[in-house]
Each structure stands twice: as structure tokens, then as C-alpha cells.
Structures
1.
Amino acid sequence: MHFRQEIGKWGENLACQYLENNNYHMIERNFFCRRGEIDIIVSDKQKKEIIFVEVKTRSNFRYGNPIEAVNRKKQKHIKQVAQYYLYINQINEVAIRFDVIEVYIKKEGYTMNHIKQII
């Protein structure tokens, strides 16, 4: 596994831990279809929502802030993958939300930023 992939996987693991610690229920990780991938799918049982989460991890800002990588094209793919996920799982009439979790890896640890309802 390349360094960037390792950083990304580590960021996803941290995001999953964060979500579980904040009362989200894990449904699926790395859901993949022809149109792309969704990193994490969770539910918020209190709000009765399904949340599709994109995780962006950075160890430096050479390529900008993590949220900048979730451009219109990426948002379109996330929506299409989410629609396909809902279709194949026959999930109807449920609220959905699209979030991004930014993970910043630092020498002394990491910081995380949960951005809700990006689309």
C-alpha cells in the first residue's frame, strides 16, 4: 500500500471511530459501484437519517484544504453512488444527508472537522 493510501485508510479509521463515539450507527464502509465510492455510510437513529460521508485526509496543505477536493464533479459522483445504494437496498422515504470529515494528520496527532450537509 502506498503512503497516500495508508494516510487515507488511517483517516477513514479515525472518522469511523469519531462517528461511532458520537452515536452514529455504522452501516457500511467503502461502498463501491461503477460511478464511484462512498467512504462511510452511517445512520442517525434519533433524526432518522442516512448519512453518506466522504473522508478527506491530509498531512500537509500542498494540495489545499481537504474540503476543496470535494468539488462539483466529486459531489455529483457521491450523489449518484448514494442514489444507487438506496435503490439496490430498496430504501425509500428516508432523509439523507451528505457530510465531509476532514482529517489533518500532524506530528503530534491529528485534528478533525465534521462538515454536515455539504450538498
2.
Amino acid sequence: MTVRILLADDLSFMRMVQKEILSGRGYDVVGEASDGLEAVEKYRILSPDVVILDITMPNMNGLDAMKKILEIDSDAKIIICSALGQQRLIVEAIKSGVKDFIVKPFKPERMFSAIEKAVKS
């Protein structure tokens, strides 16, 4: 089964890099969002297997988007991928139900392992 992924990051360059890395590994990037509101809407429409969210985004940040997505689907598999290495945000995200936290810049293998962990949980 191909894992279907939704990418949410306000930087189009970061989404492009992530999409190239993931597509090259055989993952199916089914959608992209440039802010948290768009991520929530695309989650409703696309029902991806995994969501990769940045924290710092306009209109709705990644933590609020994560909470909204989990309200829609309590089994949603969400990974936070952010340059913010702040301990408080990591702890809050994990307590709220995020499956993993990847700090930018990341190595592709770190992203792959986070996805596999999320899918198996």
C-alpha cells in the first residue's frame, strides 16, 4: 500500500523539497497546504494517511491545525516538521497526539523513519 501524504508548510520551497524526497521514496504526496487553515480543509477532502505540518504558518499555526485535524479524525497520523526546536512546543505537540517531531533541517532518512513509525502506530 502506498502511503498518502499531505504536506503543510508556508514555504513553497520546503514543500517542493519534501515532495521530491518523499516521491523519490515511493510515497504519494496527495496534497499541499501553505497554512494551517488550508491543511485542515485539505485533510477533510483528501483523508491522507499522514500529515506533515510546520508549526509557524500564517492564518493558523501547525499546533492549532493539528488539534483541528484530530477533532475531525482522532486517529490522524500527524508529524510536526519545524525549525523550532523549542522543548515546550515539542512536549505540547506530543501530548496533543502528534506521532513524531522532525527538526529542520532534516535528513531524508529521519523523515522516512517518522512516517513509518506514524503509519504503524
3.
Amino acid sequence: MKKIRTRFAPSPTGYLHVGSLRTALYAYLFAKHNDGDFILRIEDTDRSRYVEGSIENLVKILDSMGLEYSEGVFADKDDNIVQKGDFGPYMQSERLNIYKKYIDELIENDHAYYCFCSQDRLDEMRKEQQSQKVAPMYDRKCRGLDKKEIQKLLNEKTSFVVRQKVPKDGFTEFNDLVYGKIKIANKIIDDQVIMKSDGFPTYHLANVVDDHLMEISHIIRGEEWLPSTPKHILLYKAFGWEAPEFAHLPLLLNPDKSKLSKRQGDVAVEDFLYQGYLSEALLNFVLLLGWNPKTEEEIFSFKEMIKRFDLSGVNKAGSIFNTEKLDWINGMYIREMDLSKLTKLCIPYLTETRLIEEIQNSKFKIQNSNKVVDFEYLKKVVALEQERMKKLSEIGGSVKFIFSDKLEYEKDLLVWKKMTVEKAKNNLELTYQKLEDLDEKDFQAEKLQEVLNDLAIKNDIKRGEILWPLRVALTGLKGSPSPFEIGEVLGKEKVLERVKFGIKKMI
């Protein structure tokens, strides 16, 4: 049986689109599920769209996502781009001699031809076709040039491209692993350009040659390439090669069913990672954008993704990119994460929001104060929000009250439901007296819960009428973690200071 080999072949044009991440993930999972190889190839023949540093960025993101490939383009320990594998080069700009050889072969065997039409002529031709409301296609003017005329134009250094010579009749058929059997009449297939005037091949020629020479067994790519596939099939036939299997993935859509694009908001993987979405959560979310596990399950470990993934589960319909679902999945991963690991991931966001400043030896200075805390203290701070966070970037705003010298809030916020201001004030005073009698060592969440519950029972006060004013006094917020955990993090001195401030607000 032929070994499964898939590839991810992005263009280095800047950021990595989440749709491209899904393509890479599906190609990776399919290969690994079938004990095959996953390859990274860079399609950089369109030099006008090349963005400096994008290859390095791409390699870094795939690494951070855990999508390990067995051959292709890598970064060495000094972050220099290197290529490894038996089928290189893996950057198309370094394969021009290879493409030239196969273009010459197509011309020699009458499957391609030189086209000397100027851009002005092509523009005028398309304008005329559009006025007649017909699909724009090359009119094949140069297809009938004789060899003498071709040689004369070449000798005169006339600018040219090379076009594929598509059969004028018959049909091209193939079986797509997602969309099923597809049959296209050759007469509606354009004689596409396969080599540009700058000597670089187009995607259509380069990807066919590369996929064949690199022994790619399955091509997994976006639905937008489905109309081009008959052209590729014809090229495989022209070379006498066996075509690989094709699987085209449905479009990613905005909630309004428009195609997901940068104009509608964040679509770059880098943006989502910067916002504090975990790589494993983003992969889990992207997995479900077009693939159905055929169960009610929604959370999958990386190993489970590999074990369960199959192309038969890929949908034909476009998938809605729902950020609320992404938030939910990310929150699930955050809740299950080791607290030390989560804290390390949160530190950059606490630093960026200027709540802390890292000094040395895992010591952190609280901004606008002389207080220095350690990593264990920050773990307690992060633990307050671990059950509530949807993304890491929320941590700064959520725990700002911990690091604040003075809280700003309206006194009415201290009043719970139908309590009076006077009742809230009296309850805070009772709480202050009780907490003042405790030792510093008793400011632990469990002990505080025990003490405050006992206070409510002995004074015949509803639990909420004790805890609500206290929580607001400690945070200045309408919604926050429980006052027990907050009290443990703040410590006795800070707790009493804030409760006293709350009492004064109601005088």
C-alpha cells in the first residue's frame, strides 16, 4: 500500500490565517492517523506578495501548535531557516530549474504553448467578454502560432508566458474525498498560465510538479481550489503521472455567512495567540470547524484528535466561525491547566497591564508600590480567576483590584438585594470586628469561610448579607471570586483596610 504523505504548502505573505491553520491541522491529523508523513513546503513563487520574516513566523507558529512535520522547512537553534528531507528543496523559489524542465516537456509534447499577448490586449479581450456577459477566458489566439513565428518572437525577446493547452472537448472527472464525484466539461476550462513572464511558475504548475516529485498521496486544501482541480488533473495526465487523492475543505464563514476575512476582524493565528487563546484550545476549536466527530463530544486531547480524525467526517457546508464557542473551549482548557503553567502564561499579561514588574529570581514588584511578591503569591492571584477566565488577556482587568491601592465604587454597590444601607454598614462592622480578632495565619480561604459562616449563623443574618458587602468592599466589583479566596490573597492588613474603607463610604 502506498504510504500516506500530506503537505501544508502556504505562501509567505504575512500572517497565518486560521483557515490555513485548519488545513495544516487536517493534513497533519490525516497523516498521523494513518502512520504517514506530514511535510511543510513553502510556495514562494509569487515574489510580489512575499513578506520578510513570514517564513520564520510560520515555522514558529506551527511549532507552538505542536504540528510537527518530518521534512521541509525548519528553523535551527539560531532561528536560521534550513531545509531537511530527501525531496528538497522545499522552497519553490529554489526549484525553478525543475519547473523549467517540465514546462519544456509540456511544450515539446504539445500540452502547453507560448503566449505573446500583451497585457493591454488581454485587458481589452476581458472587457469585451464582460460586455457580452460571458465568462472571461483566454481566446487562445497564440495557441495556433506556427513554430517559425514562435521562434521569431523568441529571437526578438518578445515577452511571453506559457499556457496550458486544455483539450477543447470531453470531460475531466475526479473523486473528491469530501465532495464526491466531480465532472467538468473541458470547454469551460481556461488555458491557464503555468509560467509567468518573469520565469516563475504559477501555483498550478508548481504544485502539480512538487506534489508528484515529493510523492504526496493526499492533497488537503481549501474549497477555493476546487475549481482549479480539473486543470491540475489535466496536467497530471499530460505528464503521464498518477494524480493524488484530493480533499477540499469547506469555507470558514462569519456569522452573517460571508467569507471569513481580515476585514471582518481577527483571522490571524498570531492575533488569537496574542489575545490569550491557548494553542491546544485553538486547535480543538479549529478541528470542529468542518469536522463532525459524530458524537456530542467537543473537547479532544491532541492524541484523541489523531486517533479519531478521518476525512469522512468533514462536512461539505461552510462552517461559522463562532468566537463565543472559541471562548468556551478556551475557558475549559484554562480550568484544566496546571496552576503553575497557567501562572507563567499569565505573567506577560500582568506585566503588560502594568500591574507587576518582574525583577529577578521569580520576584515581582507591584507597580506603584514598594511591595515585592514571589511566584507563589501570583499563583494565588491567578487561581482566583482560573474558573472564570475565557482567555489569558482577561487576567489583568480581572485581578486589578488585588494590586490597587484604593478602590473606586459607589456605596450602593455594598447593599445586597433588599438590605438597607444601615444594615449593610452594620454587617461590615461585625465582619471587621470578627476578622480583626483573627491571626494572620487564619487568613486562609477555608478558615475564613468557616468564621464568616459562623458569624452569620450566630447573628441570625442571611449569609449573602454578610458576604456581599464584604466582597464588594474587597474588590469594588459587582462580580468577582468569593471573598474567602480574595481574603487569603490580600492578607489581614489589606482586608481590614478595605473593609474599613467600605464602612466609611456608608457613613
